From TrEMBL:
<dbReference type="InterPro" id="IPR007487">
    <property type="entry name" value="ABC_transpt-TYRBP-like"/>
</dbReference>
<dbReference type="InterPro" id="IPR028082">
    <property type="entry name" value="Peripla_BP_I"/>
</dbReference>
<dbReference type="Pfam" id="PF04392">
    <property type="entry name" value="ABC_sub_bind"/>
</dbReference>
<protein>
    <submittedName>
        <fullName>ABC transporter substrate-binding protein</fullName>
    </submittedName>
</protein>
<keyword id="KW-0732">Signal</keyword>
<feature type="signal peptide">
    <location>
        <begin position="1"/>
        <end position="25"/>
    </location>
</feature>
<dbReference type="InterPro" id="IPR006311">
    <property type="entry name" value="TAT_signal"/>
</dbReference>
Amino acid sequence: MNIPVLTRRSLLSSLALAGALPLAACGGTSSDGGSEAGSAASGSYRIGVLQLTQHAALDQTNEGFIAALDEAGIDYEVDQQNASNDQTACQTIAQTFVNDGCDLIFAIGTPAAQAVAAATQDIPIVGSAITDFESVGLVETNDAPGGNVTGSSDMTPVADQIALLQELLPDAQNVGILYCTAEENSRIQAELAVATCEDAGLTPNEQTVSSSNEIQSVVETMVGQVDVIYAPTDNTIAAAMAQVSSIADEAGVPTIVGCDTMVQDGGTASYSINYIDLGRKAGEMAVRILSEGADPAEMPVEFLDASECTLIANQASADACGVDLSILDDPEIV
């Protein structure tokens, strides 16, 4: 796990310096030796941020969250922590935030949110980069959370992404669906992709990994069996997207992926939500909780709508795989 970084009113420098600054925590110590828990003692909200792992989509979610706090003009201190995709580290960090008396915890990624939710039923928790809060047990329902957890969902437009696959690759039949079994929200997206492929007359072929160590061998096997690879917004796959795309491009197998950052890291194309917008939405929810007294139990999970999605494609990957991007209607090309 990284050394905590204390940041006030800015995330950009902390992302660059993570692990380089002295230890700082959500709770301080008062002059009489007691604990300063939250804004009542310090005049500044204390926020713990637990990010599951480092990859571009989660980094952007983090950035958007901090931007929303800055735009609101509230006074805050934030303790940035990255668990490096380690569930034990998630649990340790979550308990530290609870012990330190944070006013609010922001959890980026499903396992991070689950660890924080298990550690406290009192401190407000805002999650993000989570596909379905309800199905993974973080809330009673997405419309009425009923506890101390709410946030913004990164549910992607799976049907639109499969339609994009068919538009770019009209002759494709066998679709490899790649995800990590350790991520419940990836399974949900994979199930949607399987159903969508079957409805479209395509043949889905699920291929899974349990950790990043298996990605190379699984993808090398996949490219000999499928016409195209579909990868949802899976944290393990996203973090290794450069590796996935390198193998796939060499074999001439395009990759249709769950988000824009995966395209930037080598995926062929996506119809994608914007993770900075996703994080900003979560940050706006946090501001309402901290400064307006909003109750997470009564704050529905928020979703980005189709108008906030972007068509994006990677020219180098398309060239390697023989994909003609000119048939697309005004895509963003990287």
